[in-house]
Amino acid sequence: MKIKISIIALALTGMWACQPELNEFTPSKGNADFTTYMSAGNSLTAGYSDGALYKSGQQNSYAAILAKQLESVGRTGEFKIPYIETEDGVGFRGAAMFTKLKMGYSVDCKGVASLSPVFANTEATQQELGGFIGTPVSGGPFNNVGVPGAKVTHLLAPHYGDPAGLQTGTANPYFVRFASSTTTSVLDDALAVNPTFFSLWIGNNDVLGYATSGGVGDVITPVEGNPGFGFEASYGYIVQLLKTKASAGVVANIPDITSIPFFTTVPYNAIVLTDQAQVEALNAAYDAHYNGAAEQLGLPKIIWSLGQNPMVIADASNPLTMRQITSDELVLLTIPQDSLKCGGWGTQKPVPNQFVLTATEKEYVSNAVIAYNGIISSVAEANDLAFVDANAYMKEASTTGIKVDGVTFSNAFVRGNLFSTDGVHLTPQGNALVANLFIDAINAEYSASIPKVNVNEYNAVLLP
User: Fold this and answer.
1) Which of 174, 280, 298, 346 is the least buried, fewest Cβ under 10 Å from its Cβ?
2) Please, are residues 360 and 333 in contact by the beta-carbon 8 Å criterion?
């Protein structure tokens, strides 16, 4: 049986630059002291992009871009970054390491070549990649202590940089490489910089690990609990300690997962049937082996028709262990395309649950994001910190799109300029946009006049 699978095609168009809309003004620090800037957070702060940490990504992080702009209002000295000395990068998928993704041509199971994300170096060995990630970085303390994979509780965790904890999962390989000692925490090393001003963007991973695993590979951080366990107490304690050093700072909240292309690129109804005989064969098969039992249990039948059809997915909560996906559920970008095209996934075989976020799982994530964002805004207000509503901005980009300096930003995969090839992290151009959001918030809170970035000076996804 031949079934045509319709997966999102990339409308790859040329980009053009327009004259930037920049306001001329005299830089001013207002009532903040930017002498020593420190940025704390996770992969978004570190400059992780395209599924890996690599040097130019770190150089183009929002924090590095912001640090450059702060030079005009009093920031002095080097903005130290714990660089990884490879442009191919190192990223993890489970325990295995891979290089970053880039746009290139690949051939699918049907022999059709198309432009899609591919690994930058398919010949890189685990030993080679382990050498890059395992090489300690000296020269700290560092101004950018963004750690890919870190949750809010991890910033407080002792031994998070202890190599002995890598086997048990209590340490993070990205922090191990630049931690000042085996007993230090990320926050300890952040405070060692003696910052006069800080940025904090943390909390994404507290829901993202659960969401990107289809609800099966991680847990969401509980709101309640002591520092080091619960989100609210941990976040408040981190800010409290940062304020003992820095007189001012800026924090950002967490975008909703439906704003990022990792969850919005592959449609729920990606099964396209073009032949009536195919439709009849599938309906006959499900009538014989599923629909009768479904009717007896009062469950929806699985029915096929010409055109687009919802995928069949695994669902342990369903008495029949599978069903058709609904329109408000999400298919992850990591779903194997060849399994859909040639392996019968979504038709003869249910799509495994790690590639789907069900309505129940989606609501669980959404509720956590709402709770976290309420905490972040409250802490910002209580501590007189600048506040970046990244959630609202990313939602606007995902619905109406945003035009800045002649560039339109959206959550469209690859062609939306905002997100890199992993569908989660930002392009250099996206980081420049975020740096401007931080600048707007800082200027408003501290009566400062920090010049904004021309986003046209930075790249979006590069095409071959």
Assistant:
1) 298
2) no
SS3 101: strand
Q: How far apart are CA 436 and CA 453, in angstroms?
A: 6
Q: Which two tokens stand for residue 36?
A: 């020593």
SS3 396: helix
Beta bridge partners of 403: 408
User: Which residues lie closer than 8 Å to 149 by C-beta, 6 or more apart?
Assistant: 42, 43, 92, 172, 174, 205, 209
Write down the residue that tokens 């592959």 correspond to.
266
How wide is the angle at C-alpha 152 spanned by C-alphas 214 and 354, nearest 5°? 5
DSSP bridge partners of 98:
91
Which stretches of 135-275 are DSSP H helices?
173-176, 186-191, 205-212, 231-243, 261-264
- Cβ-based neighbours of 298, under 8 Å, separated by 6 or more: none
**At 117, which helix (H) or strand (E)?**
strand 113-119
Three-state SS sequence of 25-40: CCCECCCCCCCCEEEE
H or E segment and range at residue 442: helix 428-446
The pTM of the full predicted model, rounded to 2 decimals, is 0.93
Q: Which two tokens stand for residue 405?
A: 């300096």
* Tens digit of pLDDT at every position of the chain (464 positions): 444 444 434 433 333 334 444 456 799 999 999 999 999 999 999 999 999 999 999 999 999 999 999 999 999 999 999 999 999 999 999 899 999 999 999 999 999 999 999 999 999 999 999 999 999 999 999 999 999 999 999 999 999 999 999 999 999 999 999 999 999 999 999 999 999 999 999 999 999 999 999 999 899 999 999 999 999 999 999 999 999 999 999 999 999 999 999 999 999 999 999 999 999 999 999 999 999 999 999 999 999 999 999 999 999 999 999 999 999 999 999 999 999 999 999 999 999 999 999 999 999 999 999 999 999 999 999 999 999 999 999 999 999 999 998 899 999 999 999 999 999 999 999 999 999 999 999 999 999 999 999 999 999 999 99
Name the residue type at position 266: V
Measured CA distances, 364 to 84, 207, 356, 392, 405 (Å): 35, 9, 14, 19, 37
- Cα 190 to Cα 67, 226, 256, 385, distances in angstroms: 15, 21, 27, 18
Radius of gyration of the chain (CA): 23
In the chain, the domains with their CATH numbers are: 24-86+141-265+360-457 (3.40.50.1110), 271-357 (no CATH)
Contact predicate 58/81, CB 8 Å: yes
Q: Which of 213, 201, 216 is nearest to 253 (CA)?
A: 201
Pair of tokens at residue 360: 């129940």
